Amino acid sequence: QVQLVESGGGLVQAGGSLRLSCRASGSIFGINTMGWYRQAPGKQRELVATIYRAGATNYLDSVKGRFTISRDNAKNTVYLQMNSLKPDDTAVYYCKISLITRDDYWGRGTQVTVSS
Predict the structure, then answer these.
(1) Nearest to residue 51, comparing CAs of 95, 89, 7?
(2) Is the confidence at residue 1, as pLDDT, over 90?
(3) Are 2 and 28 in contact (CB under 8 A)?
(4) DSSP notation for the chain
(5) How far apart are CA 31 and CA 73, in angstroms?
(6) In this prediction, what percent of the chain has a pLDDT beyond 90?
(7) Nearest residue to 37 (alpha-carbon basis) of 75, 69, 83
(8) pLDDT tens digits, one per residue of 39-72
(9) Pairwise CA distance, residues 101 & 86, whole Å
(10) Using CA atoms, how far apart are residues 98 and 96, in angstroms rounded to an integer?
(11) For 19, phi and psi rounded to 5 degrees?
């Protein structure tokens, strides 16, 4: 009943920046947590960043100081600002939301490629 659409991915050179957006629509009664995951070829999916309803955040150690997660509750949207990108950041990035009903929903993913 809920759809998530990511945008903002693309190809950038090392040191560049991108901002990912994920908008949720559908039967939304309330969103608890929102987060971003990524998966590189041949690797397991990993949690990049999480933002909780009150605004607290958690980050993967390798992105701390470079990435910032934020949310706009009125727009049901979560963002990931990515600065100082490195080739190791190359992956498909997925957003996930957890509703207050404890149901989880995933986006289709957006490709981020960082060249050296």
Answers:
(1) 95
(2) no
(3) yes
(4) -EEEEEE--EEEETT--EEEEEEEEES-S-EEEEEEEEE-TTS--EEEEEE-TTS-EEE-GGGTTTEEEEEEGGGTEEEEEE-S--GGG-EEEEEEEEETTS-EEE---EEEEEE-
(5) 8
(6) 91
(7) 69
(8) 999 999 999 999 998 899 999 999 999 999 999 9
(9) 37
(10) 7
(11) -125, 120
Q: Are residues 37 and 96 in contact, defined by beta-carbon separation less than 8 angstroms?
A: yes
* Residue 27: per-residue pLDDT: 85
pLDDT of 62 reads 97
With cut-offs at 50, 70 and 90, classify the pLDDT of residue 28: confident
Task: Judge residue 112's burial from the number of C-beta atoms within 10 Å of its C-beta, 0-12 exposed, 13-18 middle, 19 or more buried.
Answer: buried
Alpha-carbon span 100 to 63, nearest angstrom: 28
**What distances in angstroms separate CA 33 from CA 2, 11, 77, one per listed residue?**
15, 28, 11
**Residue-level pLDDT at 25:** 94
Sign of the dihedral through C-alpha 109, 112, 113, 116:
negative
